[in-house]
Amino acid sequence: MRMRRIQGFWLSWLSYPCITLLIALMTAALRPLGSALDLVNIALIFLFPVLVSAVWWGLRPAVYAAFLAVLAFDFFFVPPTLSFSVADIRYLVSFAVYMAVASLTASLASRLKQQLRYSRQREAQTAALYSLSRQMSAITDLHALLDNVSREASRTMGAEVAIYLPDERSHLTLTHLSDLGSPWGKEESEKVIAKLAFDHGEAVGYGSDTLRNAQGYYLPLRTEDRVYGVLALNLKDRKFRFTSAQRQMLEALGGLAASAIARVKLAEEAKIAHLTAESERLRTAILDSVSHELRTPLAAIIGSATALTSGDDHLFNAEDRQELLVTIREGALRMNRLVMNLLSMAQLESGMLRLRKYWCDVEDLIGVALAQVKDFMQHRRLQVQLPPEPPMVLGDEVLLEQALVNVLSNAIKYSADHSEIGIAVSAHTDMLVIEVADRGIGLADGEYGRIFDKFYRAGAAKQVTGTGLGLAICKGIVELHDGTIAARRNEPQGTVITIRLPVHRPSGEALESERHDRQETELETDG
Fold first, then answer.
1. Residue 203 and residue 197 in contact, taking contact as beta carbons nearer than 8 Å
2. Across-strand partners of 382?
3. Domain total for the chain?
C-alpha cells in the first residue's frame, strides 16, 4: 500500500508536464490552420486535453489543463494574436463560460472515474469476501481458519493483524499474528484494549468512540448472541487514512470470521457431545454385558463351591464331585476369557497394543488354539485341512492365537452339539487364507458386515450369552497385521469366517536371528 501511495504521488506530479506538452503540441498543430477554422471550433478542440486530464489524472490536472488551454487560445488565436489582450470585451465572457464548462466537464469526468474506481474496489472486496467465505466453509481447523482471516485482513488493509481468543478460563490471549517477528500485539497494553473491546462487544481504538487516539483498531468478532474474540489492526504507521470503506471491509471480514469460528466451535461441541453420548452408550453396554456374562458363571461357581463345602459328603459321590469341579473350572475359564477380551479391547481402543512380530508356523498357531478351546467344545467335531507346506506368517503369535481362539469359540458357541466345524487353510502367492466354517444358527444377510462391530449382537443370537467383543477384537488384531477378516453365509446353514494375512518368505538368516532374539527375550523374562 505504501508503494501504491508513492506511485500515485509521482503520477500526479508528472501529469502537469504531460498536460503542458499536450497543449503545446495541439497549439502548434492548430496554429497553421487558424485562418481555416472558426474560433468556436478551435475552442471546442481545446476541450480535448481537459477531458483527457480528468479521465487520466483527476480534477486538479483537468482544471490546470482548462486554464492553460484558455491562455493558449487567447494568446495564439484571439485577436490581437500573440498577446493576452482582447479586442472585444465579449471574449472575456466567452473565456469565463469556457472555464465553467471545462471545470464542469472535468468534474463530471473525474467523478465518473472515481465512481468507477470505487465500483472496482467494491467488486474486488466482494470477490475477496466471497472467496474467503468459501474457504472458511471448508475449513474445520481453528488455526488454519485464523491464518486465512489474518492473511486476508493484512493483505486488504496493508497492516499487521493480531487475533485474540478466550482460553479455557475465559482469559483473552493472543492466538494468532500475521507477522510473527513483530512485537506488536504482544504487549500488555494492547491486550488490555483488546479485553475492553471483547467485554463491551464494541470496536475500540483509532477512529472509534473509545480510545480514538490509540495506535490500533480493535474489532470484536461477534455474532448475534456471542463474542468469540477480537481482531486487532496495527495503525501505528498512520501515513494513510483509515477510511470508512476500509472499516466496513474490516467489519465484513470480522463478521465472516466470527461466523466461521462459531461454526468450528459448534462442531467441536457437537463432536464432544457425540463422544460423550457414545461413551455413555458404550459404558452402559459394557456394564450390561459384563454383569450378564459374569452372573451366569459366578452363579455356577458359587453353587458348586457351596455344595462342595457344605460338609454333606454322603450326598455326593466321586463322580458328582468331579462334575462340580468341572463346572467351577469352566465358569472360571469363561470369566477369564471375558476379562481377557475386555483388556484386549481396551488396548486396541487406546492404541497401546504393540506387536512383537516373529515368524509363526500356521500349524502351531492352530494347534495352540485347538488346545485352548478343547475344554468347552463338548461334542462338536473339529476338522482341520492344511496345505502340504503351510507358509510362515510374520506376526505376533500370542495375538494371532487369541484371534483364532475367539473365532473358534464363536463357532462353537453358536453350533449345535455333534455338529462339525471346519478349519481350512490355503496358501496363495502373497496371502494366507484361514476359513472357519460352522453349521450354526446363521445370520440375516444384512448382519454379516456388522458382527465385527463392538457390542453388536445379531438378532438370532440374543438367546446365547455373550458381550459382542470377540469378533471385534479379532478384527482389530487382524488389521494390525495388515490383514482382513470377513463373514459370509455357509450353505445350506451356518457362517464362514475368513481371515486373510499377508505372507512372506523368510530367509535362513532371518529365522536364525529371530531364534536368537527369542532366546534373549526368554532369558530376560526368566531373570
1. yes
2. 421
3. 3
C-alpha dist (Å) from residue 280 to 273, 284, 287, 288:
10, 6, 10, 12
More confident residue, 295 or 26: 26
Alpha-carbon torsion 504, 507, 510, 512, what sign?
A: positive
Residue with the three cell numbers 478460563: 169
Q: Which of 177, 185, 259 is nearest to 221 (CA)?
A: 259
Chain centroid, CA 60 distance in Å: 53
Q: What CATH number did the domain enclosing 475 receive?
A: 3.30.565.10
Which residue range is the domain that position 395 belongs to?
355-526
Joined together, the cell numbers standing for residue 240 give 494513510
Q: What is the Cα–Cα distance from 14 to 20, expressed in whole angstroms?
A: 10
**Distant-in-sequence, close-in-space partners of 43: CB < 8 Å, separation ≥ 6:** 73, 94, 98
Query: Which amino acid does the sequence have at 352?
Result: M
E strand or H helix at 236: none
DSSP symbol at 180: T
What DSSP string describes 329-345?
HHHHHHHHHHHHHHHHH
Q: Does residue 164 sit in the same domain as residue 60?
A: no
Contacts of 332 (CB under 8 A, 6+ apart): 297, 301
Q: Work out the number of other CB atoms within 10 angstroms of the CB of residue 401.
A: 20
Query: Cα angle vertex 424, ends 421, 426, to 5°?
Result: 170
Q: How far apart are CA 266 and CA 289, in angstroms?
A: 34
Cα-Cα-Cα-Cα dihedral sign, residues 40, 42, 47, 48: positive
Q: Convert the pLDDT of each residue in 111-146 to its tens digit.
A: 777 777 777 767 766 776 666 666 666 666 777 777
pLDDT (tens digit, 9 = 90+) per residue, 425-439? 998 878 899 999 988
- Bridge partner residues of 423 (DSSP): 384, 436
Strand intervals (E) in 148-281: 161-166, 172-177, 204-205, 216-222, 227-234
Quick check: 34 and 85 in contact, CB under 8 A?
A: no
Sheet of 420-427: strand order equals: 381-385, 420-427, 431-437, 495-502, 484-489
- Cα distance between residue 160 and residue 176, in whole Å: 11
For residues 75 and 167, membership in a common domain is answered with no
